[in-house]
Description:
The complex is a heterodimer of chains A (128) and B (176). Chain A has 128 residues and is mainly α. In chain A, 75% of the residues lie in helices and 0% in strands. Chain A has eight helices and no strands. Chain A is elongated. Chain A starts with a helix and ends with a helix. A five-stranded mixed β-sheet of chain B has the order 3-2-1-4-5, sandwiched between helices. Chain B has a single domain (11-166), classed as Ribonuclease H-like superfamily/Ribonuclease H (Nucleotidyltransferase, domain 5), CATH 3.30.420.10. Chain B contains five helices and five strands; from the N terminus they run βββαβαβααα. Chain B has helices spanning 45-60, 79-94, 104-112, 119-129, 151-166, and strands at residues 11-18, 21-28, 32-40, 64-68, 98-102. In chain B, helix 1 (45-60) packs parallel to helix 2 (79-94) and helix 3 (104-112) packs across helix 5 (151-166). Chain B starts with 10 loop residues before the first strand and ends in a 10-residue tail after the last helix. The A-B interface holds A 13-15, 17, 20, 22-23, 26-27, 29, 52 and B 9-11, 28, 33-37, 59-60, 63, 132, 135.
Amino acid sequence: MSPADAARARYLMQRKLPNYLRTYRKRAGLTQGEVAFLLDGLSGAKVSRDERRTRRPNLRTAFGYQVIFGAAAHELLAGLFAEVEQNVIRRASLLSSRLDVAQGAGRAHRTRLKLKALDAILSRRRSR
Amino acid sequence: MKRSHASDNLLVAAISPSPHGFGYVVFEGPQKLVDWGVRDIRQDKNRQSLEKVRDLVGWYSPDVLVLENCTVPASRRSARIKRLTRAVLRLAQRQKLTTRSYARAEIKAAFAEIGAKTRYEIAQAIAEQVPDLGLWLPPPRKIWQSEDPRMSIFDAASLASAFFHEGVAPSKRAKN
């Protein structure tokens, strides 16, 4: 099983919801309109679309949610995070094997550094 | 109440129809409440309730849908609610969802272990176990008052608790 497949299997096993914005909002007792007010420039309808995943919040909005709910953005937007993570892991694994093939035994210092960084990406996910 | 670890990662939705619409809860494992609320429905209650249940189930795709077993002779649910429960079960079967259903007596038995006997005591016990629901607990009903719609959230939560208390992996479909 490739690391990306393993990540996907783990994600499915953990059975995370696409996002927990609604959960955290309800927990805080806030309405969608109030959250929109706090985010300044957003409407309640946009908050609703974020919650229902018909709109993908931009980075500024995601940080706004993090500040409002006091939870990390990757936790609030678990599905999006898992999707990005899975993609990065897949590509890290690909880049790692490309570098391995290109450099062979006599690796330059810079390539060794890159491989180490890529390995760290893969092992960070494994350890979580 | 003792908890089973067999159902720790399951997404469990429980629905409790009421005269005003229905209450629902969605749990991710026994400890994590992810959604809850009341759907207030005024007209054509069964059809609209079913539509809203379909939306809810479509959004969360729960592993298990828990309902009250209204087929037992002791059930005091109205004919409309019995029809709605049957319709929700049919909907769940069409969507290939695992369903479980519990009679009020089974829920009472599950909560009797912690000394909660009445519906309100059960709701209080749930509010203690799930702090997010604490704010939703209505004051005790006076005999001249009609039931607060928020009680249906606690009825739904008691159904989900009964499922987690039973601790059976949802491999079998409920016979209702």
